[in-house]
Design goal:
90 residues, mainly alpha, 3 helices, 76% helix, 0% strand, transmembrane helix
Length: 90
């Protein structure tokens, strides 16, 4: 399994997996998918948390709440699916 040295972000690990032909095996491709899924999950959660903690804004209207709930649940399903496929691949 690929281990990234300290200080190398997940994004760079994804770039490394895409560039090196010897890492084009299913497990490494799924690790790259995990990196992308984490980036998408962070964009679903972090903006609202920033508004809440930095500005003290604690209310959210209905449609953004539904959109955020959908994004968070989709992120969870995608993460569980990728991890399940990785476990099945082993």
């Amino acid at each position: 399994m690929l281990t990234c040295p300290p200080g190398v972000t997940g994004e760079r690990c994804g770039d490394l997996i895409m560039m090196d032909r010897s890492l084009h095996r299913p497990m490494f491709v799924m690790i790259c998918h995990l990196v992308v899924c984490d980036l998408l999950g962070a964009t679903a959660v972090v903006p609202r948390l920033m508004m809440h903690f930095l500005m003290g804004q604690q209310k959210i209207s209905y449609f953004p709440a539904i959109a955020q709930a959908f994004s968070v649940h989709t992120y969870g399903v995608a993460m569980q699916t990728i991890l399940g496929v990785m476990a099945y691949d082993r």
